[in-house]
Amino acid sequence: RGSLPHSLYVSAMATGSGIVWFQRTIDLKPKPRGCHYVTEEVIKGFPEISQIKIGTLHLFMQHTSSSITLNESWDASVKDDVEMLLNRLVPEVSSIRRKGRHKFLL
């Protein structure tokens, strides 16, 4: 659990003096179950993002047991609240079975 990196497909489009398009796949460090900030990893793996002032960013998590949410982080309790709600929605109990290295809900 948490031993394999999770691939994140990142693409961005911006306008200004012309239309620019960047895309790449980056690997996020393995993490245990829970909510984690990945902003720094995305910026490090996608340095072109610093060139974009106005545009659209698309993030796609390519792993069945991972997801991306966008939350404000000014108030640290937001992360705790989201994690609490996700744990209530998908508890780590025996009703979840493993198939290969992925988890599937029954």
How does this structure look, described?
The chain is α+β, with helices and mostly antiparallel strands and 106 residues long. The chain has one domain (6-105). The protein is built from 2 helices and 5 strands. The protein has helices spanning 39-45, 77-89, and strands spanning 6-14, 20-28, 55-61, 96-99, 102-105. The strands form 2 sheets. A 3-stranded antiparallel sheet has the order 2-1-3, with helices on one face. A two-stranded antiparallel ribbon has the order 4-5. Strand 1 (6-14) and strand 2 (20-28) form a beta hairpin. It is elongated and about 50 Å long. Residues 101-106 have low confidence and may be disordered.
Summarize the structure.
This protein is an alpha+beta fold.
The biggest sheet, with number of strands, parallel, antiparallel or mixed sense and barrel status, is: 3 strands, antiparallel
User: Helicity level, as a percent range?
Assistant: 10-25%
Residues in β-strands, percent: 25-35%
Strand order of the largest sheet: 2-1-3
pLDDT < 50 runs, ≥5 residues: 101-106
| Number of H/I helices | 2
Family: Belongs to the UPF0047 family.
InterPro entries: UPF0047_YjbQ-like, YjbQ-like_sf
Protein name: UPF0047 protein YjbQ
Pfam family, one: YjbQ
Write the layout of secondary structure elements.
Layout: E1 6-14, E2 20-28, H1 39-45, E3 55-61, H2 77-89, E4 96-99, E5 102-105
Antiparallel strand pairs: 1-2, 1-3, 4-5
Top keywords for this entry?
YjbQ-like_sf, 106 residues, 5 strands, disordered C terminus, UPF0047_YjbQ-like, two-stranded antiparallel ribbon, 3-stranded antiparallel sheet, alpha+beta, UPF0047 protein YjbQ
